[in-house]
Specification:
The chain is an all-alpha fold. It is built from 18 helices and no strands. It starts with a helix and ends in a 6-residue tail after the last helix.
Length: 307
């Protein structure tokens, strides 16, 4: 039922109608979210509301941001629905502007910081850490590294970038989530002057960025939902995967960036102008020649010369 309502809301032109607005508060009732079978459809419906009319909800529904975060916190109390809680937070990060996000950002980041605190003792698996990477990618990609630095101390952020980010980036297989992570990584490299003070970090991020961009493991677009479901749910067999695929929709938070290759090339070109000679020598020393040639070709297609 909930996924059908979500599809109808997505397909309805214009603002959220009064009828749909009247349904919003009942949807947030905790009793709905306590049934695990309802959760995927409810998450999609909540994301549809946020994407279609976040400003309307903020104007008509009272303290809606706090209510949605409470839903996410409820979901993250169970390992079975933890990833769904992360998706709810991603929806908030995507649709709120920086001013509205600032007062609640610490609560949004809390589960990420807690989970990443265990990243030194457990393998960096897609299923365990994929939702964390996706949330951080959308946050940095949408709002820039400054927003993240405002809530994390320099040591914690440096540890995330050096240990987690550069190692996890090449593991992402979903096309849409890879795109978000590549945009966020590019913004980190270009906008965060502090990374240049951490020995080896800029080089490792460059290498991870270029090799991930050119990775031969990138899947066709039609397989993206399937891969994203596997990242969230694990391989529970064809039947279970198809069921999850039928009730979930993978949304691209960066639909306004149609070509991630062009975005990266143009951004690195600006960095190359700022740091004369560094980028060219770093890429030549870190990236294999065959991949470097492919990167030159991508740059040439968008009319940008980086190296």
């Amino acid at each position: 039922v909930f996924q059908v309502i979500a599809m109808l809301l997505e397909a309805t032109p214009g603002d959220i109608s009064p009828t749909y607005l009247s349904l919003f508060q009942p949807i947030l009732a905790p009793c709905n979210w306590q049934m695990a079978g309802n959760v995927p459809g409810l998450v999609r419906l909540l994301q549809a509301y946020l994407k279609k009319g976040c400003a309307q909800l903020l104007a008509t529904q009272g303290n809606v941001v706090d209510q949605i975060i409470r839903v996410a916190e409820l979901l993250m109390q169970s390992r079975r629905t933890e990833q769904s809680g992360m998706k709810v937070l991603v929806g908030l990060v995507e649709t709120l502007d920086a001013q509205l996000l600032a007062p609640v950002l610490e609560r949004i980041l809390a589960p990420c910081v807690k989970k990443l605190g265990r990243s030194n003792t457990v393998p960096l698996s897609i299923r365990r850490f994929g939702p964390v990477m996706n949330l951080l990618s959308v946050l940095v990609g949408k709002h820039g590294i400054t927003v993240l630095k405002s809530k994390l101390d320099a040591e914690t952020l440096g540890r995330i970038q050096a240990r987690f980010w550069t190692e996890f980036l090449p593991k992402i297989k979903s096309r849409i989530r890879r795109k978000a992570a590549l945009i966020a990584t590019t913004r980190m490299i270009v906008e965060d002057g502090a990374i240049w003070d951490i020995p080896g970090l800029p080089e490792n991020m460059f290498k991870a960025l270029i090799e991930t961009l050119l990775s031969a493991s990138a899947e066709p677009a039609e397989k993206d939902n399937y891969l994203s479901v596997l990242e969230d749910e694990g391989d529970r067999g064809v039947r279970g995967t198809r069921l999850a695929h039928s009730r979930d929709r993978i949304h691209d938070p960066f639909e306004d960036v149609p070509g991630v290759e062009g975005y990266i090339a143009r951004s690195l070109s600006q960095l190359s102008d700022q740091r004369k000679g560094y980028l060219s020598s770093a890429l030549r020393s870190l990236v294999p020649e065959d991949k470097l040639s492919k990167f030159r070709e991508l740059c040439a297609k968008v009319g940008v010369q980086v190296i």
